[in-house]
Amino acid sequence: MFIRTERSIKEFIHFYPIVSTLVIIHIVLWLIIDLLQLPIGIQIEQWGIGNNYFIAEGEYWRLFTPIFLHGDVMHMLFNSFSLVLFGPALEQMLGKGKFLVAYIGSGFAGNLGTYLMNPDAFFFHLGASGAIFGLFGIYLFMVFFRKTLIDQANAQIVLTIFIIGLIMTFLRPGINQEAHIFGLIGGFALAPLLLSNVHPFSPWRNRQRYSDDDTIQFDPNRWNKKRLIPRSIRKNLLWIIIAAFVLLGLLSRIGFL
Q1: pTM of the model as a whole
Q2: Among 1, 27, 56, 207, which is most buried by a count of CB atoms within 10 Å?
Q3: Residues 48, 61: contact at Cβ < 8 Å?
Q4: Beta-bridge mates of residue 179
Q5: Read out DSSP for 99-128?
Q6: Distance (Å, whole) CA 98 – CA 225
Q7: pLDDT (tens digit, 9 = 90+) per residue, 137-180?
Q8: Measured between alpha carbons, how far is residue 60 from residues 31, 66, 111, 118, 137 in Å?
Q9: Which residues are catalytic?
Q10: Which among 101, 104, 106, 125 has a CA at the least distance from the CA of 114?
Protein backbone atom coordinates (compact mmCIF):
# COMPACT_ATOMS: atom_id res chain seq x y z
CA MET A 1 0.00 0.00 0.00
CA PHE A 2 2.79 2.41 0.87
CA ILE A 3 5.47 1.37 -1.65
CA ARG A 4 5.22 3.39 -4.84
CA THR A 5 5.25 1.20 -7.96
CA GLU A 6 4.23 3.79 -10.55
CA ARG A 7 6.56 3.97 -13.54
CA SER A 8 6.35 7.72 -14.14
CA ILE A 9 4.87 10.96 -12.84
CA LYS A 10 2.28 10.79 -15.61
CA GLU A 11 1.18 7.37 -14.41
CA PHE A 12 1.00 8.54 -10.78
CA ILE A 13 -1.16 11.52 -11.76
CA HIS A 14 -3.41 9.24 -13.83
CA PHE A 15 -3.88 6.80 -10.95
CA TYR A 16 -4.25 9.38 -8.16
CA PRO A 17 -5.55 12.71 -9.52
CA ILE A 18 -6.76 14.06 -6.16
CA VAL A 19 -3.48 13.40 -4.34
CA SER A 20 -1.59 14.88 -7.30
CA THR A 21 -3.77 18.00 -7.37
CA LEU A 22 -3.34 18.58 -3.64
CA VAL A 23 0.45 18.29 -3.91
CA ILE A 24 0.49 20.70 -6.86
CA ILE A 25 -1.59 23.18 -4.81
CA HIS A 26 0.94 22.87 -1.95
CA ILE A 27 3.86 23.58 -4.29
CA VAL A 28 2.22 26.45 -6.19
CA LEU A 29 1.10 28.23 -3.01
CA TRP A 30 4.57 27.81 -1.47
CA LEU A 31 6.13 29.24 -4.62
CA ILE A 32 4.00 32.39 -4.78
CA ILE A 33 3.85 32.98 -1.00
CA ASP A 34 7.17 31.88 0.46
CA LEU A 35 9.72 31.77 -2.35
CA LEU A 36 8.63 34.51 -4.76
CA GLN A 37 6.68 36.46 -2.14
CA LEU A 38 4.30 37.83 -4.75
CA PRO A 39 1.74 40.39 -3.54
CA ILE A 40 -1.13 38.05 -4.44
CA GLY A 41 0.59 35.29 -2.46
CA ILE A 42 0.87 37.49 0.61
CA GLN A 43 -2.81 38.36 0.27
CA ILE A 44 -3.76 34.67 -0.01
CA GLU A 45 -1.79 33.86 3.13
CA GLN A 46 -3.33 36.72 5.09
CA TRP A 47 -6.79 35.75 3.89
CA GLY A 48 -6.42 32.02 4.52
CA ILE A 49 -4.13 31.49 7.53
CA GLY A 50 -5.77 30.06 10.65
CA ASN A 51 -6.45 32.42 13.53
CA ASN A 52 -8.99 31.90 16.30
CA TYR A 53 -9.71 35.61 16.70
CA PHE A 54 -10.75 35.98 13.06
CA ILE A 55 -12.77 32.74 13.23
CA ALA A 56 -14.62 34.08 16.28
CA GLU A 57 -15.33 37.22 14.26
CA GLY A 58 -17.13 35.11 11.64
CA GLU A 59 -14.36 34.25 9.16
CA TYR A 60 -15.29 30.56 9.18
CA TRP A 61 -13.45 29.78 5.95
CA ARG A 62 -10.29 29.79 8.07
CA LEU A 63 -11.38 26.40 9.37
CA PHE A 64 -10.60 25.05 5.88
CA THR A 65 -8.03 27.26 4.14
CA PRO A 66 -5.05 26.58 6.46
CA ILE A 67 -5.04 23.00 5.15
CA PHE A 68 -3.43 24.18 1.91
CA LEU A 69 -0.87 26.64 3.33
CA HIS A 70 2.60 25.93 4.73
CA GLY A 71 5.18 27.90 6.67
CA ASP A 72 8.34 27.05 4.71
CA VAL A 73 9.79 24.68 2.14
CA MET A 74 10.51 21.83 4.56
CA HIS A 75 7.02 22.05 6.06
CA MET A 76 5.52 21.90 2.57
CA LEU A 77 7.76 19.05 1.41
CA PHE A 78 7.22 16.94 4.54
CA ASN A 79 3.43 17.15 4.28
CA SER A 80 3.50 16.62 0.51
CA PHE A 81 5.73 13.54 0.86
CA SER A 82 3.42 12.18 3.56
CA LEU A 83 0.44 12.70 1.27
CA VAL A 84 2.21 10.98 -1.65
CA LEU A 85 3.09 8.00 0.55
CA PHE A 86 -0.17 7.50 2.45
CA GLY A 87 -2.82 9.10 0.26
CA PRO A 88 -2.81 6.97 -2.93
CA ALA A 89 -4.05 3.72 -1.37
CA LEU A 90 -6.99 5.52 0.23
CA GLU A 91 -7.80 7.42 -2.96
CA GLN A 92 -8.06 4.13 -4.85
CA MET A 93 -10.08 2.43 -2.12
CA LEU A 94 -12.48 5.28 -1.38
CA GLY A 95 -12.70 6.90 -4.80
CA LYS A 96 -12.08 10.55 -5.60
CA GLY A 97 -15.15 12.01 -3.88
CA LYS A 98 -14.86 10.09 -0.62
CA PHE A 99 -11.13 10.66 -0.43
CA LEU A 100 -11.63 14.41 -0.79
CA VAL A 101 -14.28 14.30 1.96
CA ALA A 102 -11.83 12.38 4.17
CA TYR A 103 -8.99 14.82 3.59
CA ILE A 104 -10.94 18.09 3.84
CA GLY A 105 -13.13 16.75 6.65
CA SER A 106 -10.12 15.70 8.74
CA GLY A 107 -8.38 19.02 8.13
CA PHE A 108 -11.56 20.84 9.16
CA ALA A 109 -11.78 18.72 12.32
CA GLY A 110 -8.18 19.60 13.19
CA ASN A 111 -8.76 23.34 12.76
CA LEU A 112 -12.10 23.19 14.60
CA GLY A 113 -10.40 21.40 17.49
CA THR A 114 -7.72 24.10 17.52
CA TYR A 115 -10.45 26.73 17.84
CA LEU A 116 -12.56 24.94 20.44
CA MET A 117 -9.63 24.04 22.70
CA ASN A 118 -8.02 27.49 22.53
CA PRO A 119 -10.74 30.02 21.67
CA ASP A 120 -8.76 32.83 23.31
CA ALA A 121 -5.39 31.90 21.78
CA PHE A 122 -4.92 34.14 18.77
CA PHE A 123 -1.78 32.56 17.32
CA PHE A 124 -1.57 31.86 13.59
CA HIS A 125 -1.56 28.25 12.38
CA LEU A 126 -1.36 26.56 8.99
CA GLY A 127 -0.48 23.23 7.38
CA ALA A 128 -1.94 19.97 6.11
CA SER A 129 -0.83 17.90 9.11
CA GLY A 130 -4.33 17.64 10.59
CA ALA A 131 -5.69 16.29 7.29
CA ILE A 132 -2.82 13.80 7.01
CA PHE A 133 -3.36 12.63 10.59
CA GLY A 134 -6.97 12.13 9.55
CA LEU A 135 -5.83 9.68 6.87
CA PHE A 136 -4.01 7.80 9.63
CA GLY A 137 -7.27 7.80 11.58
CA ILE A 138 -8.93 5.94 8.70
CA TYR A 139 -6.06 3.46 8.52
CA LEU A 140 -6.30 2.91 12.28
CA PHE A 141 -10.00 2.17 11.92
CA MET A 142 -9.08 -0.48 9.34
CA VAL A 143 -6.47 -1.97 11.67
CA PHE A 144 -8.93 -2.34 14.54
CA PHE A 145 -12.32 -2.85 12.87
CA ARG A 146 -11.85 -3.66 9.16
CA LYS A 147 -8.92 -6.06 9.15
CA THR A 148 -9.89 -7.47 5.76
CA LEU A 149 -8.95 -4.16 4.15
CA ILE A 150 -5.33 -4.07 5.33
CA ASP A 151 -2.75 -6.86 5.66
CA GLN A 152 -0.67 -7.46 8.77
CA ALA A 153 2.54 -5.95 7.39
CA ASN A 154 0.89 -2.68 6.42
CA ALA A 155 -1.04 -2.62 9.70
CA GLN A 156 2.29 -2.74 11.55
CA ILE A 157 3.62 0.11 9.39
CA VAL A 158 0.55 2.22 10.21
CA LEU A 159 0.83 1.55 13.96
CA THR A 160 4.57 2.25 14.02
CA ILE A 161 4.35 5.53 12.11
CA PHE A 162 1.29 6.58 14.11
CA ILE A 163 3.13 6.06 17.40
CA ILE A 164 6.19 7.96 16.15
CA GLY A 165 4.02 10.78 14.83
CA LEU A 166 2.10 11.00 18.10
CA ILE A 167 5.29 11.15 20.13
CA MET A 168 6.77 13.84 17.89
CA THR A 169 3.53 15.82 18.17
CA PHE A 170 4.16 16.34 21.88
CA LEU A 171 7.96 16.54 21.82
CA ARG A 172 8.66 18.96 18.98
CA PRO A 173 8.14 22.68 19.63
CA GLY A 174 5.87 24.74 17.41
CA ILE A 175 3.49 21.86 16.63
CA ASN A 176 -0.25 22.49 16.58
CA GLN A 177 -1.07 19.53 18.81
CA GLU A 178 -4.83 20.09 18.70
CA ALA A 179 -4.82 19.96 14.88
CA HIS A 180 -3.03 16.60 14.91
CA ILE A 181 -5.22 15.04 17.58
CA PHE A 182 -8.56 16.31 16.30
CA GLY A 183 -7.59 15.59 12.69
CA LEU A 184 -6.90 12.00 13.75
CA ILE A 185 -10.23 11.82 15.58
CA GLY A 186 -12.02 13.31 12.58
CA GLY A 187 -10.60 10.71 10.19
CA PHE A 188 -11.40 7.88 12.61
CA ALA A 189 -14.98 9.16 13.02
CA LEU A 190 -15.50 9.44 9.25
CA ALA A 191 -14.04 5.99 8.56
CA PRO A 192 -17.20 3.87 9.17
CA LEU A 193 -19.12 5.88 6.57
CA LEU A 194 -16.31 6.20 4.05
CA LEU A 195 -15.20 2.55 4.20
CA SER A 196 -18.58 1.09 3.31
CA ASN A 197 -18.50 -1.01 0.13
CA VAL A 198 -14.77 -0.59 -0.48
CA HIS A 199 -12.18 -3.15 -1.56
CA PRO A 200 -8.56 -3.56 -0.38
CA PHE A 201 -5.91 -1.61 -2.24
CA SER A 202 -4.44 -3.33 -5.29
CA PRO A 203 -1.78 -1.90 -7.64
CA TRP A 204 -3.03 -4.32 -10.29
CA ARG A 205 -6.42 -2.60 -10.30
CA ASN A 206 -4.68 0.63 -11.30
CA ARG A 207 -2.79 -1.15 -14.05
CA GLN A 208 -6.00 -2.69 -15.38
CA ARG A 209 -7.76 0.65 -15.49
CA TYR A 210 -4.75 2.27 -17.12
CA SER A 211 -4.56 -0.37 -19.86
CA ASP A 212 -8.33 -0.16 -20.46
CA ASP A 213 -8.35 3.63 -20.79
CA ASP A 214 -9.65 4.44 -24.27
CA THR A 215 -7.53 7.57 -24.38
CA ILE A 216 -4.33 5.53 -24.25
CA GLN A 217 -3.53 4.05 -27.63
CA PHE A 218 -0.65 1.93 -28.84
CA ASP A 219 1.66 3.77 -31.19
CA PRO A 220 3.71 1.31 -33.29
CA ASN A 221 6.24 4.06 -34.08
CA ARG A 222 6.73 5.29 -30.55
CA TRP A 223 10.14 3.65 -30.20
CA ASN A 224 11.36 5.44 -33.31
CA LYS A 225 10.50 8.89 -32.00
CA LYS A 226 13.39 10.96 -30.80
CA ARG A 227 13.23 11.59 -27.09
CA LEU A 228 13.69 15.23 -26.14
CA ILE A 229 14.52 14.26 -22.54
CA PRO A 230 16.87 11.31 -21.86
CA ARG A 231 15.27 8.30 -20.21
CA SER A 232 17.52 8.52 -17.14
CA ILE A 233 16.32 12.07 -16.48
CA ARG A 234 12.66 11.30 -17.16
CA LYS A 235 12.70 8.42 -14.67
CA ASN A 236 13.99 10.71 -11.92
CA LEU A 237 12.21 13.90 -12.96
CA LEU A 238 10.08 14.09 -9.81
CA TRP A 239 13.12 13.92 -7.54
CA ILE A 240 14.96 16.47 -9.67
CA ILE A 241 12.03 18.90 -9.38
CA ILE A 242 11.77 18.38 -5.62
CA ALA A 243 15.53 18.85 -5.18
CA ALA A 244 15.30 22.08 -7.19
CA PHE A 245 12.53 23.34 -4.91
CA VAL A 246 14.59 22.48 -1.82
CA LEU A 247 17.66 24.25 -3.26
CA LEU A 248 15.62 27.34 -4.15
CA GLY A 249 14.14 27.38 -0.68
CA LEU A 250 17.52 27.10 1.00
CA LEU A 251 19.03 29.82 -1.21
CA SER A 252 16.14 32.11 -0.43
CA ARG A 253 16.63 31.53 3.29
CA ILE A 254 20.32 32.40 3.31
CA GLY A 255 19.90 35.48 1.18
CA PHE A 256 21.11 34.44 -2.27
CA LEU A 257 17.62 34.90 -3.78
Answers
A1: 0.81
A2: 1
A3: yes
A4: none
A5: HHHHHHHHHHHHHHHHHHH-TT---EE--S
A6: 40
A7: 999 999 999 999 999 999 999 999 989 998 999 988 888 999 99
A8: 26, 11, 10, 16, 24
A9: 129, 180
A10: 125
